[in-house]
Amino acid sequence: MTKTSLVRRCFIAGLLIWVPLVITLWVLDLLVGTMDQTLRLLPLEFQTESWLGTHVPGLGVVLTLLIVFLTGLLAANIIGQRLVTFWEGVLARIPVVNSIYNGVKQVSDTLFTPGGQAFRKALLVQWPREGMWTIAFLTGTPGGDVVNHLKGDFVSIYVPTTPNPTGGYFVIVPRADVVELDMTVDEALKYIISMGVVAPNGSGRRNGNARAALPRQKAANQ
């Protein structure tokens, strides 16, 4: 091994250690710094600068989590549900805000509601043309007037882009044209973000053939 190859190998090995670490610390610092802004909601006399003489990083995270928990606790009872309904009614009367709020709420309800099926399965689909394959995620089944114009059994999928999976395409395809993969959503995301470098290991979590098409809905068989 030449000196140049040795230097290059050591340099790349160092990058593989430091790049993920630095990015992780940067993201954590960004999140903590953003959450620390919630301390501004407190009266000046309750802020750490007043009684400690210095800012304590991380207290905003605790306050943010506490606010989220108390909000959920309040919304879980009858009085809280009425307040939420009243607040949503007020927002519904505000132009532009109404459209933004309803769109974000529908997405958050789909992603965070227990038992929801959004992004619960990793799929293999032919994209962008027949003979080329990529990873997609199951988001549900078509709804609304779309169903009236489709003949057969279809599913809604999200095809992410690489290496940024937050951008992608919403596609409606026949259920028979998608293949359920033997990998978790997290494994599939890592595979996409790494541009295929970090290949997941199939662990046989599914019963039967991993390349079988998604099972049809009961309603489709009736």
Key features of this structure:
alpha+beta
Account of the protein in words:
It is a single chain. With 222 residues, the protein is of the alpha+beta class. The chain has a domain at 122-215. Helices cover 44% and strands 13% of the residues. The protein has 7 helices and 5 strands; from the N terminus they run H-H-H-H-H-E-E-E-E-E-H-H. Strands 4-3-2-1-5 form a 5-stranded antiparallel sheet, with helices on one face. Strand 3 (154-160) and strand 4 form a beta hairpin. Helix 1 (3-35) packs across helix 3. The longest helix has 33 residues, at 3-35. It is flat and about 65 Å long. Mean pLDDT is 82; it is low at 206-211 and 218-222.
The gist of it:
This protein is α+β, with helices and mostly antiparallel strands. It is about 45% helix and about 15% strand.
Strand order in the largest sheet: 4-3-2-1-5
Please tally the β strands and state the result: 5
Summed up, the helix count is: 7
Gross geometry: flat
The radius of gyration is 24 Å
Question: Per DSSP, what share of the residues sits in E-state strands of 2 or more residues?
Answer: 5-15%
Helix content: 40-55%
Average of the residue pLDDT scores: 82
The residue ranges in which pLDDT falls below 50 over 5 or more consecutive positions are: 206-211, 218-222
Order of helices and strands: HHHHHEEEEEHH
Q: Structural class given helices, strands, pairing? A: alpha+beta
- What summary fits the major beta sheet? 5 strands, antiparallel
| Span between termini | 67 Å
